[in-house]
Design brief:
By secondary structure, the protein is α/β, with parallel strands linked by helices. The protein is built from eleven helices and 16 strands. It has two domains: 150 residues, Murein tetrapeptidase LD-carboxypeptidase, N-terminal domain (Rossmann fold); 167 residues, Glucose Oxidase, domain 1, CATH 3.50.30.60. The chain is globular, with a radius of gyration of 19 Å. The two termini are 18 Å apart.
């Protein structure tokens, strides 16, 4: 397995930087951003400071990818900043690749938290040899209506604050209820959640270990073939964690992406596969998705591959926080997924 640097764990009283590496949408919902900051303070004792360009708006940030990369570098070099939290995702942080300094990431390893389009940046942390964290953004579950859910708080605390192994858990309830973030009156009204069916086991019988690598499939597709695509060594023996976005790609498209991973040799070398609850899928779409996943595993001779689906990470709520790069074990006989080492030191 590749060796990674563990960033220092967060503690109460620490300052974290908010960064808009993908979209400047935050300026359209300032009340929700303030709610996220307040809830981070109340739940974890964290103080949030904005990176210099984080609140400059969507048009400015779209025109200036260098400014977004500068914000990441500023947060890394700033001795008062202990962690870096993504404000929100987007669709074009692949444009940051020419401007990112991987040597700086390695020299100043810090907690980096985000998901969706932040997949681009998290992958560069792995390429620099530093653990990264696939979890909620400030405007999503950290600014959840009426407060951060207990499931989310536990996941963040275990991954970012506790320097010890931990088990992943299935949420007892989940939601896709849409709330207009621009409606300030709704911020303190909780969303409706429904009972969860738990994880779905699609394949594999043997206990396996590997390091976590993955993210949002649509974003990985944008990254594929660029200089920011992880080197082969980072995929070797990995447990893949893959999810889909609100774009709602059809099951066949997910199958095509997995075939690409098969053709690259990634599936052949993988130790296991974790898949999130697909955003906005009907039961029929979910069934067809599972058929596609099992079909592609068979096509590339990986019927032995342990596959866990319907997990609570990515574009679902509430979200887990996954320590990318950390060693994980999948045990089909016990129906467990455990993180064998802390993501932080």
């Amino acid at each position: 397995m590749p060796e990674f640097i563990k960033p220092s764990r967060l503690q109460r009283g620490d300052t974290v930087a908010s960064v808009s590496l993908s979209s400047g949408f935050v300026t359209e919902v300032p009340h929700r951003y303030e709610a996220g900051k307040r809830q981070l303070r109340d739940a974890f004792g964290l103080q949030v400071v904005e990176a210099p360009n984080a609140l400059r708006g969507a048009e400015y940030l779209h025109r200036h990818p260098q400014a977004r990369a500068d914000d990441l570098h500023w947060a890394l070099e700033n001795p008062e900043v202990r962690g870096i939290f993504s404000v929100i995702g987007g669709d074009d942080s692949v444009r940051l690749l020419p401007h990112l300094d991987l040597d700086l990431i390695r020299r100043f390893p810090k907690v980096m938290l985000g998901f969706s389009d932040t997949t681009i940046t998290l992958m560069q942390f792995l390429r620099a040899g530093v653990h990264a964290f696939y979890g909620p953004a400030i405007l999503t579950d950290l600014a959840e209506n009426a407060g951060i859910r207990d499931f989310v708080a536990r996941g963040v605390r275990r991954a970012l604050f506790d320097a010890r192994p931990f088990g992943l858990e299935a949420a007892s309830e989940w939601t896709e209820e849409h709330v207009d973030w621009r409606d300030e009156a709704r911020q303190e009204q909780p969303r409706s959640f429904q009972p969860s069916d738990g994880w779905v086991w699609l394949g594999g019988r043997k206990r396996v270990e590997g390091h976590l690598v993955g993210g949002c499939l649509e974003v990985l597709d944008m990254l594929n073939g660029t200089p920011g695509w992880p080197e082969a060594r980072l995929w070797d023996g990995a447990i893949l964690c893959l999810e889909t976005s609100e774009d709602v790609p059809p099951p066949s498209q997910v199958g095509y992406w997995l075939r690409n991973f098969g053709a690259q040799g990634i599936l052949g070398k993988a130790s296991g596969l974790l898949m999130s609850r697909p955003k906005a899928y009907t039961p029929d779409m979910t069934s067809r998705l599972y058929d596609w996943v099992k079909r592609v595993a068979w096509e590339f001779g990986r019927e032995d591959l342990p596959i866990v689906a319907n997990m609570d990470f990515g574009h679902t709520s509430p979200q887990l926080t996954l320590p990318l790069g950390a060693k994980v074990v999948i045990d089909p006989t016990k129906a467990t997924v455990d993180v064998l080492e802390a993501g932080v030191s």
